User: Which sequence fits this backbone?
């Protein structure tokens, strides 16, 4: 499951939260600024009132005017104080208004008295200081410059003429302007530092909450992809990185388990991971930055010989130590979940992989084959299977010992894995056999892959016994051309492998090649069956079915139907295998009888089939089933007129399977639906067919077991329809 949509959503939420946080900070800063302004305003009002009324700095004529101005200023401060006490949150316009009033009253006091030579000019510093708290350092400096302009160009003892003609006045004026700027810069810097510390504290608190939520949400998770996806998404949020991956480092290399990407990440395919940097971090256990500090790799957890590495990319900005601390906190808070996930991953690997080669084991391979055949789009997709045999491997163990044999197996597995595609499933199929499941791969593509594997093992030149190198024999089969079911696909690939070994090894052979050889066998068919036995049974069935268009896939479908019925009548495994053999071989008599292309059921093919099967040294039970598969329950069948339970049970099952296959495939008759075919067959219950076997067929059809083997289209009509 891709995590990119989730991460993009998280990024948008993060941006919304950031904007809300900035707006909240601005509002809080203005509120604090107004409180500071109120406090300083009262201090200035008290001090200025005392200077006016208790000293001789102000003349008697000026006192009344100054007291009135101070009174109005005090009234304004009372209103602001009451508003703040009631929880009022000042906006930008309100703060601009109070700032303007402060500058107006301070400048008015200066103008009404002795200009800037009077101590009342200190009131102007109120605006400089409080503006830094209200709006930041920039606003404080701007207000200081504005006040300096008032100082230089508003009437009083310092006028442009005085400053230009009097050197001492000029120095004093510039000193006061410089003092305004110094106060503005100092208060602005302090305000900025306090705001930065406050923001960091809030971010740390938010990160702590995020870590607690993450730890709680994944503490019970064991699937390593889910845990790692959550880790990567949160790492992006905490560090501002745009691309992240969780990588598992093991002795076999690196594998990416989870990735996340934000909207602002560079378009196109991501840059490949730096294996040397990953190896360095996995080996040392310490985080590392790239040269430009645009990439950071951090070890998150390790266990069972595997190390989990987090790699983050941020091309436009460098990573800082603060980012590293944040990731370290993320790792620490998720330690339990990471350990659980790695433990579960290790146990899963042990259950699904071969300990010697690191490939999938045979149980996992069969699960993947069944899953491929269970796909909804299976009817439009190809599934190929390759079986690989290590040539002359027994001599390696006998001459050099099992330890060297294990090394050859490991090297051969690595060659096969390297030649296969990333999406192919490579497994150890047996002692010295490998298998490759290549889903969505045609017969031509599978054959090319087989040739590529043979060439790769030649190029590797893995030494085996004296003067010899490792070679492979490869068998290839593809659904739907060579098989209709998962079990048949495995058998077809195995029989193609038999051909490759029989032809001299060190080569790749396909199942159709073996089928063609059997089609051309003529009088040698019995000899070939006797020599190969079960190793060519499926190929023989396909060779029989290739005799005309009407019979394409017939034996495969009949075998699948018969097997489903046999399971439901309770046949034991041994008898079920005999039924499968007989179903594949039931029409083999046609191979030696000849006949025209329009013929489907040649007279005497059951007897001839029995003769071939018996001569090929199959069991008498299989030969008997082949002979009697056209007998009827009422004794009116051929060739012997056997009735009821005199007919072998497997032959009775084949009779029902052939009838059902013919009707649902439209072979020699109008094609019927499953329900209509079952109704038609029930007409012959107790006469043509065994009622108990028909019941078993009905059960198999009702649970959908037979749906997957129905042909996509009806088969073409033939001259001799199949009797129902």
Assistant:
């Amino acid at each position: 499951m891709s995590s990119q949509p989730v991460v993009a959503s998280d990024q948008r939420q993060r941006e919304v939260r950031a904007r809300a946080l900035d707006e909240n900070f601005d509002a809080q800063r203005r509120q604090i600024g107004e409180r500071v302004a109120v406090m300083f305003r009262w201090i200035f009002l008290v001090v200025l009132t005392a200077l006016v009324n208790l000293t001789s700095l102000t003349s008697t004529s000026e006192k009344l005017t100054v007291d009135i101005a101070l009174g109005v200023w005090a009234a304004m401060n009372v209103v602001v104080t009451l508003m703040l006490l009631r929880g009022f949150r000042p906006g930008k316009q309100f703060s601009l208004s109070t700032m303007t009033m402060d500058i107006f009253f301070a400048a008015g006091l200066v103008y009404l008295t002795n200009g800037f030579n009077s101590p009342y000019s200190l009131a102007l510093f109120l605006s400089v200081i409080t503006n830094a708290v209200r709006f930041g350092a920039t606003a404080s400096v701007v207000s200081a410059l504005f006040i300096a302009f008032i100082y230089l160009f508003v009437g009083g003892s310092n006028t442009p003429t005085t400053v230009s003609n009097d050197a001492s006045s000029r120095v004093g004026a510039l000193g006061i302007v410089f003092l305004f700027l110094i106060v503005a810069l100092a208060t602005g810097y302090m305000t900025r530092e306090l705001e930065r510390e406050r923001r960091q504290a809030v971010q740390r608190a938010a990160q702590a909450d995020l870590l607690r939520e993450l730890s709680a949400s994944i503490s019970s998770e064991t699937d390593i992809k889910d845990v790692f996806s959550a880790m990567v998404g949160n790492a992006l949020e905490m560090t501002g990185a745009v691309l992240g991956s969780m990588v598992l480092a093991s002795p076999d290399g690196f594998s990416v388990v989870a990735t996340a990407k934000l909207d602002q990440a560079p378009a196109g395919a991501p840059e490949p991971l730096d294996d040397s940097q990953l190896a360095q971090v996995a080996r040392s256990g310490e985080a590392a930055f790239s040269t430009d500090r645009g990439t950071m790799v951090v070890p998150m957890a390790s266990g069972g010989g595997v190390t989990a590495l987090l790699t983050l990319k941020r091309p436009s900005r460098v990573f800082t130590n603060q980012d590293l601390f944040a990731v370290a906190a993320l790792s620490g808070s998720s330690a339990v979940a990471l350990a659980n996930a790695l433990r579960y991953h290790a146990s899963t690997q042990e259950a699904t992989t071969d300990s010697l080669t690191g490939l999938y084991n045979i149980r996992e391979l069969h699960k993947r084959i069944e899953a491929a055949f269970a796909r909804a789009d299976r009817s439009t997709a190809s599934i190929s299977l390759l079986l690989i045999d290590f040539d002359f491997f027994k001599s390696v163990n006998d001459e050099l010992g099992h330890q060297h044999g294990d090394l050859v197996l490991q090297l051969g597995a690595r060659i096969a894995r390297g030649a296969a595609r990333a999406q192919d499933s490579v497994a150890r199929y047996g002692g010295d056999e490998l298998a490759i499941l290549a889903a969505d791969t045609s017969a031509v593509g599978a054959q090319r892959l087989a040739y590529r594997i043979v060439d790769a093992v030649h190029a590797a030149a893995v030494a085996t016994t004296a003067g010899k190198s490792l070679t492979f024999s490869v068998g290839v089969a593809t659904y739907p051309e060579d098989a209709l079911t998962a079990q048949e696909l495995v058998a077809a690939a195995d029989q193609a492998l038999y051909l490759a070994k029989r032809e001299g090894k060190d080569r790749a052979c396909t199942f159709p090649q073996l089928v063609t050889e059997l089609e051309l066998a003529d009088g040698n068919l019995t000899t070939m069956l006797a020599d190969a036995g079960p190793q060519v049974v499926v190929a023989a069935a396909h060779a029989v079915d290739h005799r005309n268009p009407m019979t394409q896939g017939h034996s495969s479908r009949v075998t699948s139907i018969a097997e489903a019925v046999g399971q439901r009548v309770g046949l034991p495994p041994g008898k079920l295998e005999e039924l499968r053999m007989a179903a594949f071989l039931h029409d083999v008599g046609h191979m030696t009888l000849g006949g025209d292309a329009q013929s489907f059921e040649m007279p005497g093919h059951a007897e001839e089939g029995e003769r071939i099967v018996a001569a090929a040294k199959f069991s008498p039970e299989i030969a008997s089933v082949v002979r009697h598969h056209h007998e009827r329950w009422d004794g009116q069948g051929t060739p012997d007129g056997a009735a009821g339970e005199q007919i072998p049970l497997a032959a009775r099952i084949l009779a029902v399977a052939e009838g059902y296959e013919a009707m649902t495939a439209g072979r020699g008759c109008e094609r019927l639906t499953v329900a209509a075919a079952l109704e038609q067959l029930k007409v012959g219950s107790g006469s043509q067919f065994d009622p108990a076997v028909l019941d078993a067929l009905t059960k198999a059809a009702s649970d959908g077991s037979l749906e997957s083997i129905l042909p996509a289209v009806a088969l073409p009509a033939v001259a001799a329809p199949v009797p129902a």
In short: The radius of gyration is 44 Å.
